[in-house]
Specification:
The chain is of the alpha+beta class and 516 residues long. It has helices at 28-32, 53-65, 116-127, 141-146, 154-157, 192-197, 249-265, 303-315, 333-339, 345-348, 366-376, 426-440, 478-483, 487-497; strands at residues 19-22, 46-49, 70-73, 89-92, 99-102, 107-110, 164-172, 178-184, 208-214, 234-243, 276-283, 289-297, 324-332, 352-360, 385-390, 412-420.
């Protein structure tokens, strides 16, 4: 009898092989450089473009049989690369883009190459629903979802992994045989742990995701319009803008404290204020301004009033007036979520990046704010984006062990980014960002060690420095920063579904017993 997880997939001998590009093909140089962060260019000997689960099984099986390493790319937005491909095979899943409704599972089926923006469009236009995914419309779901993706609706609706009810993964067993497994959220499913590992365990760890199924937790309807959250219709944005020319250190500190304090007070699941999210974004003073922005579904009663309550709280006691305060930028929700946040290289100021992250249970101390101010106001211009995004709310209604995404008590998510164009400037920009992060977290070994104020780091913003004792002097391993107490279970899933460690990268889940 055919195992349930393999039904619908023909025997390997009957499967077609995916289109492939090798170094002697004129398309190779373009295909190999499709990753968003141009600091990392794969050295794979070939790039395969599968269009089906069967073709993924064939490509993985062929590579394993030849002793070639397999690396995986969906949208190419992994900021730290995957490490050397060792002249192996790069699976590019960007042609697997289907977003549809599966009546048999009463769930929405999404392939890993589907872009976040395309998922928003399809779900909205066909069914009027949405998911709490991110703002980067060109990011693909393959890595975004498995890493615990979040976005402007997460305070209201939770993390996107909270809607994952099944996942199809191509795995490799001890004998080197590749096969597809469907794992579900049903605790009685023998592959339930594999489903759990894909609710925040990070990409490239257990196999190749070929399909996700999403549905609201506890939903029982057969009507697709009732199986995911209703999408907003109108979206209200507001901004507070300050010029660095008039900013003082005391005003900067007050703004940061006010901003964080509002989220500390207003992030309980179900609270009225969780309908609003916001961001704090300061560039280096050479960039001219820094901004606090708010985002809210404008069809919620009192949306404008809540926006101004938030702005009043942020500006309370600040003795430097903002150069602009707006609360009336109302646009179509679909327009905002699919056209306004492409996040291309020009908008970010470069094609080369370094990114760091942190989860915050509480705002920064006076010492941390002073360190940030010092780095943002150096005489030497620097490329720095210093950001804090509203979090918590419905995300924190889920127990930390219910999904692999362990961070369920934070109210802010920190993002520290540097971007530039010239490869000759790599060393300078990376050093500046490392110094900022190290000094902010100086009291915890240069990293956000989980404690009463911190809750670790975000695996979708991978940072190999966390595994480097030169930059992480805390004695706390990188795996704890990303996965906390969930890491041993993730290792057990790794042992069962990737016992040969075929799927690995610079921050991949380690097999049990691996050297630290």
């Amino acid at each position: 009898m055919t195992p349930p997880e393999n039904r619908g997939h023909p025997p390997a001998t009957a499967r077609s092989r995916p289109a492939a590009v090798t170094a002697d093909d004129p398309r190779y140089e373009t295909a190999i450089r499709c990753g968003f962060n141009q600091r990392f260019v794969s050295d794979a000997a070939s790039i395969c473009f599968p269009t089906s689960t069967g073709e993924v099984i064939t490509a993985v099986g062929d590579a394993v049989a030849k002793g070639q390493r397999v690396t995986v790319r969906s949208g190419g937005h992994g900021y730290e690369g995957t490490g050397p491909a060792e002249r192996g095979v790069l699976l590019d899943l960007s042609t697997m883009t289907e977003v549809d409704f599966d009546p048999a599972r009463r769930a929405f089926s999404m392939q890993p190459g589907a872009k976040v923006g395309d998922a928003y469009r399809t779900l909205y236009k066909r069914w009027g629903v949405t998911v709490p995914a991110g703002e980067g419309t060109e990011v693909c779901l393959g890595g975004h979802l498995v890493g615990g993706g979040f976005g402007p609706l997460s305070r209201r609706y939770g993390a996107i992994v909270d809607y994952l009810c099944a996942v199809e993964v191509v795995v490799v067993d001890e004998s080197g045989t590749a096969s597809a497994v469907v794992a579900t959220d049903d605790p009685a499913d023998p592959h339930h742990d594999l489903w759990w590992a894909h609710t925040g365990g990070g990409g490239g760890n257990f196999g190749v995701v070929t399909r996700y199924w999403l549905r609201s937790p506890g939903a029982t309807s057969t009507d697709p319009r009732e199986l995911l959250p209703r999408a907003p219709v109108r979206w209200r944005n507001g901004h507070l803008v300050w010029s660095w020319e008039t900013m003082t250190e005391s005003a900067f500190a007050r703004i940061m404290r006010n901003y964080a304090s509002w989220f500390e007070r207003n992030s309980a699941p179900g609270a009225r204020e969780t309908d609003l999210t916001a961001f704090f974004c300061a560039t280096h003073r050479s960039g001219g301004v820094f901004v606090v922005g708010s985002l809210i579904d404008d069809d919620i009663p009192g949306a404008r009033e809540l926006t101004n309550e938030f702005f009043d709280a942020v500006t309370d006691g600040v003795d430097v007036e903002p150069t602009a305060r707006t609360d009336n930028e109302v646009v179509s929700w679909l327009y905002f979520f699919t056209h306004s946040n492409r996040g291309d290289h020009t908008g970010l100021g470069g094609s080369r990046f370094k990114l760091k992250s942190a989860y915050l249970r509480k705002g920064y101390t006076a010492k941390q704010i002073a360190a940030a101010y010092r780095h943002l106001t150096t005489e030497e211009p620097r490329s720095i984006y210093f950001m804090f995004i509203g979090y918590g709310g419905q995300v924190n209604a889920v127990p930390p062990d219910a999904t692999a995404a362990v961070q369920r008590s934070s109210v802010l998510k920190g993002s520290f980014l540097s971007s530039w164009w010239d490869p000759e400037e790599d060393g300078r920009h990376i050093a500046n960002l490392r110094a900022l992060y190290r000094d902010i977290y100086a009291d915890t070994g240069g990293v956000p060690v989980p404690d009463e104020r911190n809750e670790g780091a975000y695996i979708n913003y991978p940072d190999r420095d966390l595994a480097d004792p030169r930059w992480n002097t805390s004695g706390v391993p990188w795996s704890t920063l990303y996965y906390g107490a969930n890491y041993p279970r993730l290792q057990r899933v790794k042992q069962r579904y990737d016992p040969r460690d075929e799927f690995r990268h610079c921050l991949s889940i380690e097999l049990p017993g691996s050297p630290a």
